[in-house]
Design goal:
By secondary structure, the chain is of the alpha/beta class. The protein has one domain: NAD(P)-binding Rossmann-like Domain (Rossmann fold, 3-Layer(aba) Sandwich). Helix content is about 50%, strand content about 15%. The chain has a seven-stranded parallel β-sheet with strand order 3-2-1-4-5-6-7, with helices on both faces. Helix 1 crosses helix 9 and helix 4 packs parallel to helix 6. The longest helix is centred in the middle third of the chain and has 29 residues. The model has no long low-confidence stretch (mean pLDDT about 95). Bound molecules: nicotinamide-adenine-dinucleotide. Nicotinamide-adenine-dinucleotide binds next to helix 1, strand 2, helix 4 and helix 7.
């Protein structure tokens, strides 16, 4: 333990937290009193991430560190978990939020686009779960929250790669929930529907309107809608929930 560590607070790592849902989750956890490790995929984003870290720390009176690492790379993912653990002397919650899309119809999909999405969304989640799981098992406490998608629950035309990765995240989550339960570690998946972020900004206005019509609540979700759910699953109070997939989609996948 080093002197600057505040080990009285719970500590969390949120992958892909430079923007969108990940950033909102990080803020939610900081507001709940967690020290937080933010993550972006490469060194190029690190100075902006450090600014976010300073802002969140100032607003919530917690420690926030910024770490560049691609979760798709085994060595970088291991180092990310190690650095987050070292920064705070503990690791209570991990939110595997980093994710990408490379959409296209299956018959035209390139291997590269399939592989990259699996590498980041599924293998990246596995890398972080494995490294964090070891620490949490020793601690006999942990909360793992993995970002899936309703595409992984029900499939989605144009997203064979993404849906496969997110369905894989569900299988991974249910399995590790069984493996880690006896050590006080829970693992759950969150499956958002359409949430307003840079990811869904890629949709055209016409597509957004058509999707909005199909959502019983007639609106896209907000990043805060998702962050509140993740905040609960990352908290002590969710301790008897494990291996679940919770859809947060305004009723779309009912
Ligand atoms: N926006 C939605 O409607 C929606 C719906 C369902 C699921 N999701 C999932 O929620 C998560 C966040 O989505 P978002 O909409 O905020 O997306 P976003 O594109 O705004 O943010 C994704 C984040 O992941 C990071 N990232 C990408 N590759 C990475 C890597 N290799 N290593 C580390 N970080 C990496 C990005 O830098 C970014 O910070 C994703 O897993 C996404 O699949 C989003």
């Amino acid at each position: 333990m080093n002197e600057s560590q505040d080990t009285t607070r719970r500590a969390a790592l949120v992958t892909g937290s430079s923007r969108g849902i990940g950033l909102a989750v990080a803020e939610q956890l900081a507001a709940a009193g967690f020290n937080v490790a933010l993550n972006c995929s490469s060194e190029a984003g690190l100075s902006a991430l450090r600014e976010q870290a300073g802002r969140i720390a100032g607003e919530h009176g917690v420690q926030v560190v910024a770490i560049a690492a691609s979760v798709a790379d085994e060595a970088e993912a291991n180092a990310l978990v190690e650095q987050a653990h070292e920064a705070f002397g503990r690791l209570d919650a991990v939110v595997n939020n980093a994710g990408i899309t490379r959409d296209g119809l299956m018959v035209r999909m390139k291997d590269d686009d399939f592989d990259r999405v699996i590498d980041v969304n599924l293998k990246g989640t596995f890398h972080i779960c494995r490294a964090a799981g070891k620490i949490m098992m020793k601690q006999r406490y942990g909360r793992i929250v993995n970002m899936s998608s309703i595409s992984g629950v029900g499939g989605n035309a144009g997203q064979a790669n993404y849906a496969a990765s997110k369905a894989g995240v569900i299988g991974l989550t249910k399995t590790i929930a069984r493996e880690l339960a006896a050590r006080g570690v829970t693992a759950n998946a969150v499956a958002p529907g359409f949430i307003s972020t840079d990811m869904t900004d890629a949709l055209s206005e016409k597509q957004r309107e058509a999707i909005g019509e199909q959502i019983p609540m007639k609106r896209f979700g907000t990043v805060d809608d998702v962050a509140h759910l993740v905040g609960f699953l990352a908290s002590e109070e969710s301790g008897y929930i494990t291996g679940q997939v919770i859809c947060i989609d305004g009723g779309l996948a009912l």
